[in-house]
Design a protein that fits this description.
The complex is a heterodimer of chains A (270) and B (386). Chain A is an alpha/beta fold and 270 residues long. Chain A is 45% helix and 16% strand. Chain A contains 14 helices and ten strands. Chain A has a five-stranded parallel beta sheet, sandwiched between helices. Chain A has a two-stranded antiparallel ribbon with strand order 4-5. Chain A is elongated, with a radius of gyration of 23 Å. Chain B is flat and about 75 Å long. Chain B starts with a helix and ends with a helix. In chain B, the strands form three sheets. A five-stranded parallel beta sheet of chain B has the order 5-4-8-9-10. By secondary structure, chain B is of the alpha/beta class. Classes of the chains: A alpha/beta (270), B alpha/beta (386). At the A-B interface, β1, α1, α2, α4 and β10 of A face α2, α3, β1, α8 and α9 of B.
Amino acid sequence: MYIADEALLSSVNAAIALQRPLLVRGEPGTGKTMLARAVAESLGKRLYSWHVKSTTLAKEGLYTYDVVQRLNDSRFPDDSGRNVSDIRSYIKMGVLGQAFKADEQVVVLIDEIDKADVEFPNDLLRELDEMAFTIPELDETVSAKHRPITIITSNAEKELPTAFLRRCVFHYIEFPTRDRLQAIVDAHLPDLDKELVEAAVLRFYGVRKVSALKKKPSTSEWLDWLVVLAAAGADPEDIAGKLPFLGTLIKQEQDIDTLAAAMRRGQGVR
Amino acid sequence: MFDLLLFNLRAQKVSVGMGEWITFLKGIEQGLVVDLEGLYNFGRAILVQSETQFDAWDLAFESTFAGVELQPEVSEELLAWLAEAQQKPGEIVDLDMSFDEMRRQFYERLKEQTERHDGGNHWIGTGGTSPYGSQGRSRNGIRVGPGGARSAVAVAGERRWANYRSDSRLDVRDFRVALRALRKLTREGSPELDVDGTVRKTVDNGGEIDLEFTRAKQNKVHLVLLLDTGGSMDHHARLVSQLFTAATDLKGFKSITTWHFHNVPYGYLYKDFATQERVPMESILAKLSPHHRLVWVGDASMAPWELFGRYHGNPWGSPVDSETGLNGLDWLRCVRDACQASVWLNPDPKRFWEHPTVSAIGGIYPMFPLTLDGLRDAVKQLRAPV
């Protein structure tokens, strides 16, 4: 179950209706990647995920031509069944290529697009606009049978080029309000003790209020923390007094010190 | 009928292109928008591409649908209003209030006035009631969370996104993102397999595999930070330390060096301001290469004699170097001549730049405000071929 707000839903619907990629940004752990899964699930469509890394090239999402393998096969033939004289044996479709070739509409997730090189999004402009690309080695154009619903996530590590941004529907996922946080808990962990959740919510917002934290705990950390608290049978009073299982909330050593200092000054409690 | 929104957005420096505008109108034609809340969400998703501009969107949206046209620049009306407010004895004007806060109050006044004139005949009169309950548009898998039924104009009026503005908000990571653009990659690193070259050489070699290697990309840029320390710069300590943290955290520069000075450098720079360990300027200048990028950080405002030395009467003894006869301004010119690729970042807001020493230094180094936008412009300047 994915709890979305009105604005996010409107953005998703706009992206689908206008056939444009949806660019989602927000703090880590606010469910950007989960959104694509939820959209695919709720529409009953298959999801193709492309997780971008710092070394990823735009072309890899379309197709790859394994020259080295072909070179090796030509020199040292084996019984792998690959036909050296047929270039197609060495061309593999990437995530976008597979999505374009699919017989039904699918959902494509391009995860953390900002991890790659600065020019990466620009290299995908035409592909995302026309949902087609050319394979020069085959002199063939692959165009999408059904325009996939594209969801792109970004942590804003690099700025994305304007030309790319202009082609997207943009949404910024905010950290949930207390009401929505409660709704998320109800959806994911319906059996939890109400008192425990209430005490935990208070502590959690207190921790997030400590402005000096480098990485504030987010929705995913929040859910992890609740699961651990529940599993350990923590008492609501314990949570009010101290912060058990701090490691699930705070991941950086420096932040633990910051938080400890803030708590000594009486902050981060409520 | 949405033209006013377009102009208000552009007045807020949200550069809406024709493409997005047509998409926006198409979406409305397709019936994607049924009410003002929908228009707020849909319009923002299409026309605005960064959370830093959400606040501008809120301002433009609010004023459009409250029937007010925004002024592109703050006009004389605002100044007149401020002057008037200052003269009124009963009203306390908080001079510490930020520019945005002033502008917001101004537009509030402006709005009140229009309301009085046209008798409150706005088409947002329905305010606050939305046809959608909090569980309104549920589908399998996705559910609408609570908190839906509020008027879009009320939401816009809250200005929840004000903290995300790129012309005010700054943190270490923002600086890092901006500084990263400074890196210039050249092939100098460790060897890696060059596939194209290998294929070509193998073919030339009659099919016998012949490997070709190339150098990995490496950054050649040396970043030099020169920080004005102490005195009037103490107010900006947090901002400068953020810039410093961001720069020193950055991987990929060939080297990062930091020097300190007070107000203006003379014949030396401090390696460490606390221990007053200093290094003569000559030896620093000698090490500069075309790959060095200099970033000065300072408010550039000081007593004129500190900068112009020689030309002004100076009761505390001349700051002019006794050996070289150079004053502060001469030294700045010296450094600029040794390394053309340099900029000056000024943490003071631009309205304080009307100062003789600030404009003198601004004449030597391109000067930018120490904000995210300013830093981006500065990086652009540093990337330009010298």
